[in-house]
Design goal:
By secondary structure, this protein is an alpha+beta fold. It has helices at about 1-25, 30-50, 60-80, 85-110, 120-140, 150-180, 185-210, 210-235, 245-255, 260-275, 280-305, 330-335, 370-375, 395-405, 430-435, 590-595; strands at about 380-390, 420-425, 440-445, 450-460, 465-475, 475-490, 495-500, 510-515, 520, 525-540, 545-560, 560-570.
Amino acid sequence: MSAWSRWSAGLGAAIWLAWLPRLAAEQGQVAALLLFAVLVLVPLALALAATPDRAGRHAWPYRAAVFAQPAAALLAAGSFLLPPSPAAALLALPWLLCTGLVALFGLWRLLPRGLSPAAEVCLDAGLVYLPIGGAWLVLARLGARPLGFSDVIVLLTAVHFHYAGFVAPLLAAMAGRALPDRKGLAARAYRAVAAGVVAGPPLLAAGFTFSPALRFAAALLLAASLLALAALTMIAVLPAVRPRAARWLLGVSAAAIILPMLLVGAYAVGELAGASIVTIPQMVRVHGWLNALGFALCGLLAWTLRPPASQQSPPGLPLSRLVSRGRVGSDFLWRINAVAESGRVPTGLVDDFSIYRRDDFDPARVHPAIRAFYEQTVRYSLVVRAEWRPGFRLAARVWRRVSTWAGQESFRVAADRADEVVSQIVPIKDEADGRQNVRAWVRTYSATGEAMYVAVYANHTLGSQTYMNIAFPWPGGNQTSILRIEAYGTDGASGILLTTRPGSGARGDEGVYFVTPVIPVRLPLNETIRVWVEEASSGVLGAASRAVTVLARHDFWFLGIPCLTLHYRILPRDQLGQGVSVPASTTAGLWAFIRQEGLPCE
């Protein structure tokens, strides 16, 4: 795919160079700059934007855009052989459709990942902004003058979104990927730069439409951000770039943007003051060509010689296909014929807890009672108490109504009540779910039979990291939580921490997603589950013993704000006479912690 785009860029460069004298003479330098982006810069950038999934496959919008680009670019160029008219606009229309595919590819990248890391958001923003340039190109070839703009402003808006809206964010993304320091001052400065590069183009366009003051502020923001990107590139990125040709090209690119951005600042100041400092023709001759040939072309060629790898895990998460067409409820898996009637009969959330072993996590150091709970979940009873945080009480009542109707993820509103939860581990057909070695944990409230959770469990591995991959079917899709496991506690027999929050290194698969039949969408949610043990000396039937109880705290965050905590006490059902002072049935031993807290129980 990348080779095809580079071939298209080479062909486009040959056509543009051969046509340049006539094009500039007949259509002007603005048109020449625009077609340089269409014929040369866009295919070079698309080659760098390639994002194959874990199986090496490219998303269909990317494949379609790459293959359509040469023909669409030639037709857009051909539209300049005609005067502005419906016929010329019709020739430019395929370019708009092609850029629309590019934007769909940007959404395909963005939605499953969310608004981080900054380098990838820059790349996504550039892809999504490109069809705005395509739309203004069609308007320019039609001869339209929306909002009373002159013909030159209409064409310059198309140029703006091809260069500042598309190429600049992509070059910023490549610089961010290549930063050797991911946590220090350079990384913090880069995040500020990335925010300005992403926000600048649409703010500047809005300023031209609505407010001279906004236009002035947006122009200064964009100019300052690109100047800061040039400085950051020279100081932090260039020393590590190889080969030498790539380093020289990148240096030229960083240096070439300095004068154009200073001119942007001067133009903005003059326009706000009502005194022309730099005219539009002067901006085109200096700003335009330095930006196109120096900053954009040299930068893209540099990164083509040395494409920096993304620090993000590749797309293609292994996700459940289970979707409800209506209410879920505790019988959902049987209603859709997803339960395996023969073969393996799992007893826990995982067959062998040792699958989570990696260099920095040793399952053997986890308390045996915790490992037993995960491997023999059916042997345990649970008591749960929900605690909604202040500020989320109204949301809790709304959620309670929605979740009760849906029969999924139903939590009590009042924190002064605890509930016994009955567990059932159910084997699931792999072919129905789409993942491997799948089982469900159906949790219902013992007093009412209402489903608390219908959760479908699997595991998947990326590199050395094995994740717990949990799907909660909902109408129209499923909510999937992918959790990373870490040690919790410092003693020799520690607890565990399961979290959807990214780790300290490169970002992995952890997160909360809503999986639609079309695309997974990263949600602004996070959850953390801490599991540990409580041991106490006591006597059972006249014999001294150690009472072992597994405890868990399940915290949820929405937009980074803590909203809900579930407190669990997890007790074995069948260990009477085995040295553990917990009755098998739901009697005083099971509800001990409720009495300790003075809570009623249904």
